[in-house]
Automatic annotation (TrEMBL):
InterPro entries (UniProt xref): DegT/StrS_aminotransferase (IPR000653), PyrdxlP-dep_Trfase (IPR015424), PyrdxlP-dep_Trfase_major (IPR015421), PyrdxlP-dep_Trfase_small (IPR015422), WecE-like (IPR012749)
Species, as recorded: Parvibaculum lavamentivorans (strain DS-1 / DSM 13023 / NCIMB 13966)
SUPFAM superfamilies for this protein: PLP-dependent transferases (SSF53383)
Transmembrane portions of the chain: none
Superkingdom of origin organism: Bacteria
NCBIfam families, sorted: ECA_wecE, PRK11706.1
Protein family according to the UniProt entry: Belongs to the DegT/DnrJ/EryC1 family.
Record-annotated active site: 183 (proton acceptor)
One of the protein's GO biological processes: polysaccharide biosynthetic process
Chain positions found as N6-(pyridoxal phosphate)lysine: 183
Protein name in UniProt: TDP-4-keto-6-deoxy-D-glucose transaminase
Length: 378
């Protein structure tokens, strides 16, 4: 039986040509032609003041934590239902992730629980746009304004998605994207830090270039470059950026193809939701998502275990779980704290099954997945 893989990274356009061009140009380290093309594209698309391409979203989040000037004992509010990188970026600065529960409809941070988590040590709010569905940014930005907090969007999954007609990644002071091969637009490993408040640009340039003012040197503003602040190796190579640029050039079309697959699952499973067998995502109308994830929620955790087994072993469908909550993980208990109950986080993370979703899925594959889900027992 042929397996329907959970994810396949696709070549979408001129990746090979651009990589060859980068190699022939004899500039394959960072901050060359393709870094510049990708950054300009992202600045235009998101409407940001600047972009720093990074080797991963993890790196972009770590740069954000440095730019937010987090220190030992500072607190950052975030959902527990996220990837470790959101919290690690904070913990690496000696700061404390403060976890709050998520909304049942979008699986995003519950904005109504943020205010009660604020203390005199709170410095920032990190939001995660799960499955490319926007968090309630109007309410979140309003709270941040009132308490003078920095907003960082973990938009790892959010490229080509909007909240009230504005791109995800354009709301926070800073935002981070991922181009890891499991995302919609990929470069193997890859990421970008978007700067939406220009006061962060100068220090961003220095952190990006290992704590030096090399960006200013390249622009001819200083005649030699020097060590001026902390920093790290946050540049991707031109080979990575060449691959990424080819993907970005056709990113919108690739997203439309992905949305069509997402819709096919949605149409097929709506009747099953009506019978109460399972739940499916129903993004709010003001959140134009990007089809990043299609998940189903089993009625109970026990059903989820049986379903994963039947999908995989019986039918060859590579379906997977997603985030394991951070608040109760060993490092979450050690480095973070929870504010309030994590009822929705605990329940949803134990019931969620992600179905295969990628541009190599054939109509036959989609039918196999649908039929396999229809046959699952309740
Ligand atoms: C919400 C979130 N943030 C950050 C990351 C890390 O991304 P990367 O693998 O590009 O470092 C992921 C990875 O899946 C993620 O889901």
């Amino acid at each position: 039986m042929a397996v329907v893989p959970f994810n396949v990274a696709s070549v979408l356009g001129r990746e090979m040509e651009y990589i060859e061009d980068a190699i022939r140009s004899q500039h394959i380290s960072g901050n060359g032609k393709y870094t510049s093309l990708c950054s300009s594209y992202l600045v235009d698309h998101i409407g940001s003041s600047a972009c720093f391409l990074t080797p991963s979203c993890t790196d972009a989040l770590e740069m954000s934590a440095l730019l937010a000037d987090l220190h030992v004992g500072d607190e950052v509010i975030m959902p527990s239902y996220t990837f470790t990188s959101t919290a690690n970026a904070v913990v690496l600065r000696g700061a404390v992730p403060v976890f709050v529960d998520i909304r049942r409809d979008t699986l995003n941070i519950d904005e109504t629980l943020i205010e009660q988590a604020i203390t005199s040590r709170t410095k920032a709010i990190m939001v995660v746009h799960y499955a490319g569905v926007g968090c309630e940014m109007d309410a979140i930005l309003e709270i941040a304004r009132r308490y003078d907090l920095i907003v960082i969007e973990d938009a790892a999954q959010g490229l080509y998605a909007d909240y009230r007609g504005k791109p995800l990644g354009s709301f926070g002071h800073l935002s981070a994207f991922s181009f890891h091969e499991t995302k919609n637009i990929v470069s193997g490993e890859g990421g970008a830090l978007m700067i939406n408040d220009s006061k962060f640009i100068d220090r961003g340039e220095i952190l990006w270039e290992k704590g030096t003012n090399r960006v200013k040197y390249k622009r001819g503003i200083v005649n030699k470059y020097n060590w001026v602040d902390v920093g790290s190796s946050f540049l991707p190579s031109e080979i990575t950026s060449a691959f990424l640029y080819a993907q970005l050039e056709v990113g919108r079309q690739a997203t439309d193809q992905r949305l069509a697959l997402w819709q096919a699952y949605h149409d097929a499973f709506r009747p099953l939701q009506e019978t109460g067998k399972l739940s499916i995502p129903n993004p709010p109308d003001h959140c134009a998502h990007n089809g990043h994830i299609f998940y189903i929620l089993a009625p109970t955790a026990k059903h989820r275990e049986i379903w994963l087994d039947q999908l995989g072993v019986r039918d060859g469908i590579n379906a997977v779980i997603h985030y394991v909550p951070l608040h109760s993980a060993p490092a979450g208990l050690r480095f973070g704290r929870s504010c309030g109950e994590m009822t929705v986080t605990d329940e949803i993370s134990a019931r969620l099954v992600r179905l295969p979703l990628h541009l190599q899925l054939s109509p036959d594959d989609v039918s196999r997945v649908i039929q396999s889900v229809e046959r699952l027992p309740v």
